[in-house]
Specification:
Elements: E1 4-8, H1 13-24, E2 28-33, H2 36-43, E3 50-54, H3 60-73, E4 79-82, H4 95-123, E5 125-131, H5 144-165, E6 171-179, H6 197-209, E7 214-217, H7 221-230, H8 233-236
Parallel strand pairs: 1-2, 1-4, 2-3, 4-5, 5-6, 6-7
Helix pairs in contact: 1-6, 3-4, 4-5
Length: 240
């Protein structure tokens, strides 16, 4: 049976590569994003396997509209991947820099999570994947909104996982993917343990197929995560 997926944020980076892996694995994929030309470029690789829908993640009414129109696009959805996200350094705490991050990573993400969960509940099954970040574990004085927004995403996904476990009339799987540094457009400046995009997305896809509750990507970031959880705040502030 031909499975179907939606990838939010498929114009570049992790979302784009995951869409390719899904198509290679036999999925028909609805790809979304604001940059329509990038979506059509991706569709040209396998026109019969991609469905293009322009979508602004920050416009919650646009998200409502997309889910309302889903029955016209496909008869079912097996997998929804939310990958849309932004962030930038904000050394001087300028609201103009934080506001877009919060609109995208908090309000935009929460809307997609909620719509996806309710869609799957009505359908009776489905798998929701959120791409959060290792940044969700602790704060950062230079990128406060990004770290806080990723903490929001991780907490929301865990809450949905708890809800799904008690939802007897539907089989809903929730997966929280927590990448470290991956070579994408969002990364600027020097970093450590930077993972090539292809390596990271292969590990992400394996975690999705295994229906894991949580996965760190690449795997060695689990060590960083464990350290971040126990390190005292006074020591942490020297580095973050």
């Amino acid at each position: 049976m031909n499975k179907k997926a939606i990838v939010f944020g498929a114009t570049s980076g992790i979302g784009r590569e995951l869409a390719r892996l899904l198509v290679n694995d036999g999925f028909t994929v609805v790809i979304t994003g604001r940059r329509l030309e990038r979506l059509h470029e991706l569709r040209s690789e396998s026109p019969e396997k991609y469905i293009v829908r322009q979508h602004d993640i920050t416009d919650t009414e646009d998200s409502d509209k997309l889910f309302t129109e889903l029955p016209e696009i496909t008869d079912s959805i097996d997998l929804i991947i939310h990958n849309s996200g932004i962030g930038e350094s904000n050394y001087d705490l300028e609201w103009e820099k934080d506001e877009p991050t919060l609109h995208t990573n908090v309000l935009g993400a929460a809307k997609i999570y909620q719509l996806s969960y309710n869609y799957f509940k009505k359908q009776g099954y489905g798998h929701l994947v959120g791409i959060s970040s290792v940044a969700s574990i602790r704060g950062n004085r230079n990128v406060p909104a990004y770290h806080a927004s990723k903490a929001f995403q991780s907490s929301y996904l865990e809450s949905l996982w708890m809800k799904a476990a008690r939802t007897k009339k539907a089989q809903i799987t929730i997966t929280n993917i927590m990448p470290g540094y991956v070579d994408t457009d969002i990364i600027t400046g020097p970093t450590f343990w930077m993972a090539p995009l292809d390596k990271a997305t292969v590990q992400i896809y394996k975690a999705i197929k295994a229906k894991k509750r949580k996965a760190y990507v690449t795997k060695r970031w689990l060590l960083v995560a464990l350290t971040l959880k126990i390190i005292p705040a006074k020591l942490l502030m020297r580095y973050l």
